[in-house]
Design goal:
The chain is α/β, with parallel strands linked by helices. The chain has nine helices and five strands; from the N terminus they run αβαβααβαααββαα. It is found in: Membrane.
Length: 273
Amino acid sequence: MHLGESSMPYKSVSIEIPGPKQRVTPKQQQITVATELKETVPGNVDFTSITSAIFGGLAGLMTLSSCYILYLRYGANVATFVGFKKLPASPVAPVPVLVVYAAEDPAFQGAVVALVEFLQSYGGCSVAVDMWQQRKIAELGPMRWLAEKVKTAQRVLIVCPKSSLRSSRCPPNHTFPEPSIPASAPDLYPLILNMVAGHAKSSRDLAKFCVVQLSEEQDNRPRNLAPELRACRSFCLMKDLTKLCRSLHGKDQDAKISDLIFRPRIVYTEKCT
């Protein structure tokens, strides 16, 4: 028996296979919005007043600065003139000064005492002189005492009389006791001359020594001075008293520029002594 085509029925089935889900990210859109800003300037602004105010402020500042500078320079004198009391100035270290003098007559000795007391009381100096340190001289000896004082002193004043004064003797004044000449004076004067001669080769060391002549006019004739003192700077009292006091304070290294500009000047006259 021959079989033909199969008569069995076929059933077709369709199957859907789901694929992977794809995530879609939404794109952000940037929107640019242009805005127009308008600034309104008021029409009633007075630029002249603003300029005047600026220049007025600058002028006031300059006036205040000028008044402050004038106060620093002349304020103390004006305040004293009005009636205010002047406060004491800040203490300043006194200048160490050594005074050596020739052994002359009591009149010359009295002039030396007046000079030493003036420098100690009014000249801002710490004076070392033999008449005030007799006990120390007796302990150390004249030569050692003089060497130590010359080393520590900033200035060494060598007081010598004028030759014309040696011949003219003043009449004795019995109202006040005449000052006596210390016994160390004849020894110290030759020693200081030898020290000056030893420093003659160095101008820096020789600048420490100054000659003070107690006469009305400075004697420029070299023969009237000791040969050792002719190279030293010389002052004549009372004529050069102001120059002498300025010279004694000329080595102040700690002085500020502002102090030198605004510091009140001190004028020395014969009335101070």
